[in-house]
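task queued by scheduler; priority normal; single chain, no ligands, no partner chains; default sampling; output format set to structure tokens
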Amino acid sequence: MFAHRLIVCVAAGVTLAATMLSAQEVWKARWIGKQECRSEANSWLAFKKEVNVSEVPDEMVARIAADSKYWLWINDSLAVFEGGLKRGPSPGDTYYDEIDIAPFLRKGENFLSVLVWHFGRNGFSHADSGVAGLLFEAKAPGFEILSDKTWDATVYKAYGTAGEPEANYRLPESNLSFDARKDITNWCGPSAPRLGRAMELPVIVGEPPFGKLVKRPIPMWKCTGLMDYPEVRRSGDTLVCSLPYNAQITPYLKVKAPAGCTIKMQTDHYKVALAKTQCLWGEYITRDGVQEYESLGWLNGDKMMYIVPSDVEVIDVKYRETGYDTEITGTFECDDPFLNEYWRKAVRTLYVCMRDTYMDCPDRERAQWWGDEVNELGMAFYSLSPSSWKLAEKGIYELMNWQRVDGVLSSPVPAMNYSAELPSQMLAALGWYGFYTQYFYSDNNAFVPVVYDRMKKYLHQVWKLDEDGLPIYRTGDWDWPDADSPVDKYALMPCLYYLALKSELEFARMLGRAEDVAMIESVMARLKDSYNRLYWTGNGYRSPSYKDRTDDRPQAMAVLSGIASEEKYQVISEILKTTDMASTYMEKYMVEALFVTGQSSAALDRMKRRMATIMDDRSSTLYEHWNWTNSSNHAWSGANIILLCQKVCGVAPLTPGFKTFSVRPQMGWLKRASTSFETKYGTIRVSLARKSSKSKTAELTIDVPEGTEAQVVLPNSKTSVLASGQHTLNVKADF
């Protein structure tokens, strides 16, 4: 099953609309399904339609929606590999794809075949409609293809759910089993048996259970076609197949076997250590003879394992890599091998944590937690091509569309079996490093007028202030100020709230909300004054009720928010040099604060000391926590790569999209460093080299993109303004 002569994977992106709740277009097509399959978990349906084409049009755009995923063949070609997005642009609504199918059509008889995978259960990343369905509509002048009762359809009974252990409750996907003895031979081809008639579901397009239809705001998946594993070795009954890195893959096999043998497929990331959480795996049950199979539910890992019975002859194994359609275009390189390796692992971790949403991890949950996403979206600007920026935009709309009636924001979204307010993560999302960074670095403010009032409701109705103007601590549904404890949460939370207000203030100015500007400025001024008066002890920030050792997190966030004045920097920097309490999630901000306080060498020391505990040869990606006790691929741990570009190489935007940008290197003890990354206006390249490790200056070579301007700090602390082109000069390189 699933062996085809020509594999074509669509990779066309679409632009995110200003609102994901825009007016609905009229659809002539009908939602279709099968009478005997309405709501079962892990259901698979095959749909087929024969169409006659008198003249092949230059373009024929198909709009396709499904609950939950689909694969589309046209004649002998796979036109779409895993179409559809997990449901939930807003509660109860569904995404649809737009695909130009004209290149796959031919004059005369054509066969459209669609395989639909209905998850049939809620998860941390999906809102189940309760109905397996397909909606297909393609139009060209004088010609249209519409899903209706004239299509053929059947439940694909070869697909089932693998036995124990089941996938954990966080995942809407199920462990896939495919029994080749029940396969529908050549069902995509012209000689296949009739499948039976489809059923037009009693559903009005745009209404429940599938809800409003929202055009897919991110590209279709990038995929490679089937490839050979770099290395295959046998260990007992297991084929251990190495991958080039931790990747999202679908495994393929070709075997000769008697009927009824079971081949199991799982990766080395199948089980999460500390939580003993079962992730996804698959199995294939053979028919008699030579056969091929590709398991369509993607897995991730550094190694793929096939557990093969002794009476099965393996002819070939391959894999297909799929993932978000972006490229790793950013670079960083320096004279420290550890930092170079950290960069590589961080970027690899970022990419494997991207698909329908930014994910906390690609195996245990696949959930869009916004603490993770804030770090991830920042990383993308320095490491990935601009197509990546659309994923955070999608996440912003989803977060705000799922806002509760009372104004509370919850995460993860979209989700239906778990959703909680984590106040610290919600503040981070709305804040300076979340929504504001997404706007300022991309130079795209389309989402701002859509989400602004919802931001305001959360920050000023959900959150309350005490008599001193400090935010009253919210436990939310999950009292989670950071991943590691103890934490001085009462000192930390006002800093996060202040950063959220900074973001809101800039958006209010952008929208001309003068009254809001005045209100926010007043709240911020009072908060800053009270925080310094009540929490500064002379030896650091500390809330009165906190009894443990001084926490590094409030110190750093007070610096980064602007609450702490410069005369406090020396005390704060000494705390940050000696205190390691922050989690892998918040560690980036500790290092950043050291850079801001002028301690670049100490910042690099801390970065290397702490990141060393989440890197080893067992994985090409970074751990979730400070040791191998949980997820081994958590992108929030890679956020320091932002600082390698932004602080070490010194490149930061001064106006949206890096239209103007600063270059102020803080190289610490490094002798050499370079970076390059794409912006809206072109690629910035910076290369720095000291003559010696003690030199206070470095030779800078910089490529300034056309139409942009760089402001470079010179050895005399004056600024040189550079127009587009390549420049070489000496610059100040702070320690």
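post-processing summary
- The chain has four domains: 6-156+170-217, 225-323, 331-648, 663-732.
- The radius of gyration is 27 Å.
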